[in-house]
Amino acid sequence: MGEPVRVRGGRAVLFSALCALLAGCGHGEPFRTPNFGTLDPHSTDAPVRITLSAGTDLWPTWLPDGSGILYTSERLDRTDRDWCLVVLPSSGGRITRTMCENTKVGEDSVETFQSAAVSGDGQLVYVRSSGRRGELDATGVRARSRRLVLGSLGAPLGQNVSSIPYTIPGRHTHTGVSQISWIAPNAIVYRGDFLGLVCLVPIPNCPQRFVQSGLGIVYQTLGEAPGRVALPGTDYASSVAVGESGDEVYYTLGGDSRVYRLTLSTLASTVIYDFGAAGIVRDVQVRGGKLVAIVGGSVAYGLNASVDLPLQIDDGGDIHVVDLLGGTDSTLAAGGRLFSHPALSPSGTRLVAESSGAGSWDLWLFEVP
Fold first, then answer.
1. Theoretical Cys-Cys bridge with 84: which of 38, 100, 266, 312, CB 3.0 to 4.6 Å?
2. Of residues 112 and 104, more confidently modeled
């Protein structure tokens, strides 16, 4: 275990605000997933490529009971090329559910639904972006509007709960949101982001690329009295995941090899694992005594002069699985591929992650040792 991370000034105010948000959280009914049946995967080799669309598939997450995988998929069969939420069975196979904007009015624009999370009682929260046809892809970087939406699996279109961008006092403006997780029946945590095009080198007519990089971790309540709190010590966080107790979050920081745990009731932060020379760690997940993260690979962190912010430019890395009790670290290999955004199943026995190839991104399914 590492030394506690120092919490910056205003700890008492932050603690009071967080306690007030925590106190406002209620409880819902148990979540029950419809029976989608058993559908065969496309392959039984390990790891299994579970999406075969010519389009791009991103941001996987699991249904709370482990029966299916929810992710964002590019709809090549639509004239507007929307990016919809779809559900696959837990072992891959045929899509069993598609959640999209299906009105005729929506055909002159592009909608993206991404970074979704499903709660234990079936609530669905995600980021929805809108833009003109031909101007919007899964990044949403050219969106004319972007907002956080709260719905349910039964009624996914839901209602807007907050607009993006937003500013928390004393913090940089967040122009994007990603890595959403439910931490209580009416509360979520997520990574507030910089999202935009940046110059790679400071020269006239510079080459640009899209970057979505973390600026900090946010705790937000939903419902009748929504509110946001920036969690202390998480400036320029590269990932966030909730713990199993409901009183802890795990996070990583830009350019850092360490994984941290923040206890919400005390605001104490400690290092739980350091990947050291293996490289920069991000996309952390913790469940059942296992820590999963992306480490090393094609990633760089530093100050970007065009926006005057430290940004992490990330094209994927290796999937590491750490046994937190034994301290052993193993790597899930897949023919030299680089991966992003792993999602650990509720049982901790399976993992799905993104990987690029042939100009698009697909999802791959692993058995976790």
1. 100
2. 112
